[in-house]
Amino acid sequence: MWTEEAGATAEAQESGIRNKSSSFSQIPVVGVVTEDDEAQGVFKPMDLNRVIKLLEETDKDGLEEKQLKFVKKLVRCYQNGLPLRDLAQIFKILNLCAGKIKNQPHFIESAYDIIKLCGLPFLKKKVSDEITYAEDTANSIALLGDLMKIPSSELRIQICYQQASSSYKIQMAEVGGLAKTMVQSMTLLENQLVEKLWVLKVLQHLSTSEVNCTIMMKAQAASGICTHLNDPDPSGQLLFRSSEILWNLLEKSSKEEVIQQLSNLECLLALKEVFKNLFMRGFSHYDRQLRNDILVITTIIAQNPEAPMIECGFTKDLILFATFNEVKSQNLLVKGLKLSNSYEDFELKKLLFNVIVILCKDLPTVQLLIDGKVILALFTYVKKPEKQKIIDWSAAQYEELQLHAIATLSSVAPLLIEEYMSCQGNARVLAFLEWCESEDPFFSHGNSFHGTGGRGNKFAQMRYSLRLLRAMVYLEDETVNKDLCEKGTIQQMIGIFKNIISKPNEKEEAIVLEIQSDILLILSGLCENHIQRKEIFGTEGVDIVLHVMKTDPRKLQSGLGYNVLLFSTLDSIWCCILGCYPSEDYFLEKEGIFLLLDLLALNQKKFCNLILGIMVEFCDNPKTAAHVNAWQGKKDQTAASLLIKLWRKEEKELGVKRDKNRKIIDFENLPGLSAEDFVTLCIIHRYLDFKIQATHKQRELANKSWENFLARTSNAKTLKKAKRLQEKAIEASRHHKRPQNAIFHQTDIKGLNTTVPSGGVVTVESTPARLVGGPLADTDIALKKLPIRGGALQRVKAVKIVDTPKKSIPT
């Protein structure tokens, strides 16, 4: 029985089939017994209570022989299957037999025979029996797990042989918690391989259920199974079944908790040894597939920063295995090894690239990446494909590995700047981009994740190369950026952009837009704060910016990436045009301000702050005002009316309230504040009073003296009074106190409706918002004249961001 069931055939191993349901799944859930069947004796009645009472008796002559005789009679009676209605009593009899085994070994055979009956379908007389006797069935099946404690190899194997043979029994096993007792029984079978393999087979079947996987996970099944992966096993079944169970636990229970169980030194050492052995000595299809499965499980564990991957030496080995083909190594682990172009080895290579990306997120790994010459190994793929040298991989395989390698570089290279530069990284990438743009005949297969949209063209290669350059440029490392500029990167990027827009490609529009966005971001990173580089950007650069700004606004809603491209374009105006007067003038001459105002008129909130910031900066150029005043939108809208409309929209969104005279009200009546909150609010209030009054004072001094102003005003007396109140309010604000008579007075000065408090608040409706604040008072643009670099898309100098732009660009 063992050789037929537990020792799975070599043919099944070779095919790598994961038979999660097993051939037992074809067995019916329960057998339905008809009246004819009953007439034939299937439900032949037997007094089970009498058998139970007999087995409970002790100390009588000839009792054991009589008890064994009745149990054999029971087995013959139920030779066609156990009825659901009798299951509870039959399992009570089984439990009594099991209890006698220690002192009366003959009862092993009786228990064995009863357990064997469990392999037959359970019988029901009524359709409702499954529901009626569900609890009895679940408790009975759960009892089998407890019987694993009996130190009988034959009995344990028979128990395992019966389990999970039907969906109904698996369902009942869930209810009864059989999975837990089976996991716990593993500790009793340390040196008993045959029984252990049978238990693993049971757990493999049980782990096809999410409920059972959760039960097993809570019983620490993952760590318990993983630590024994290297136990001696000539059959190869232990590793196969164990990996299947680990897979199911990761897929069907809490992935985080399973990873936590496996993130210890003992488990990782076991996985490391298994992977190393399979990598070096696994030659069959089955071995290679199992090796890849172990690597995927390891990759999942490596995502946990607390996993001791470096401490157990696994990281170092994985880096060696990932690079030994490209960088020759004298390490004995890889001496004489060579990967084939089989599907399993090809998948292995991609998995190794992927695990490097995961491992590099742990900074202590950096030195191991340097020692392993990972950058050099990856750069062997960043070149024009040479047919005569592509021996190990097919053309399609090599292309996929090439794209995967470049994508891996985007994550690793920013961490290893010195290695990147010593490998002439910039020169290699720029030369590869030249080939991407060339007319060199090349048939791209585009049949992988990284090759999406690149079939028959070089867009995929260009896309990932630009991502790599973008990641390096946004490190803001002057050595890298200076080297790029000296190699003509600015001119090359502009040339690629112009070439792309000269050959529209609607089929691959999304990828083309991504390429254009990355080019503009690279140019922004290179030109920011460098006048000479902005001059190199020049009129050709301005032309590509204007080209994007002329895009049909309806495309912004297409979801293809026009929004991202527009953000990149506006960013390039900041970094590549503003501050360079010839470029600014050319932008104005080409009606760039008109295009900015057209975009502003679209009233899309995500663009407004950025455009307004650019407009403020352009206003430093004396030629800008004429363009702003000359602009006309739909229905002859002017720039002034557009800005006022935006202001009102902002007020509405902020919930600013006004009274019947249109004055802003309710600065103070805020709900839900404690006494301490009101004290803090009072401090804020007084500080704002002081700042407002000080601003008024500065403005008056900057224009004319107060006395000269009074001399030309007919209502001098009223203004003198206002001045005294103002000075009193300033003085009170300085000392953090409000006069006791802080009441509001309404004064009408030549039609100027002014509300002046005798205390600390002055709200003048006609005073410019930049002086008194308003709905935009808490924004960077309202507070001071700043480029967008100091506002919505401020670049944080102290933080290095890898692989992603340093600006928050919504998609």
What does this structure look like?
This protein is mainly α and 811 residues long. Among the domains are: 2-224, Leucine-rich Repeat Variant, CATH 1.25.10; 675-773, no CATH class. It contains 42 helices and 7 strands. The protein has a 3-stranded antiparallel sheet with strand order 5-6-7, covered by helices on one side. The protein has a two-stranded parallel sheet with strand order 1-2. A hairpin with a 5-residue loop joins strand 6 and strand 7. The longest helix is centred in the last third of the chain and has 29 residues, at 675-703. Residues 1-43 and 733-811 have low confidence and may be disordered.
Main sheet characteristics: 3 strands, antiparallel
Strand order of the largest sheet: 5-6-7
Number of strands: 7
Radius of gyration: 40 Å
Overall pLDDT: 78
Based on secondary structure, the structural category is mainly alpha
End-to-end Cα distance, whole Å, is 61 Å
> CATH topology of the domain at 2-224, which one?
Leucine-rich Repeat Variant
- List unreliable stretches of 5+ residues: 1-43, 733-811
Shape: elongated
The proportion of residues forming helix, as a percent range, comes to 55-70%
β-strand amount: under 5%
CATH architecture of the domain at 2-224: Alpha Horseshoe
* Number of H/I helices: 42
User: Which CATH class of the domain at 2-224 is shown?
Assistant: Mainly Alpha
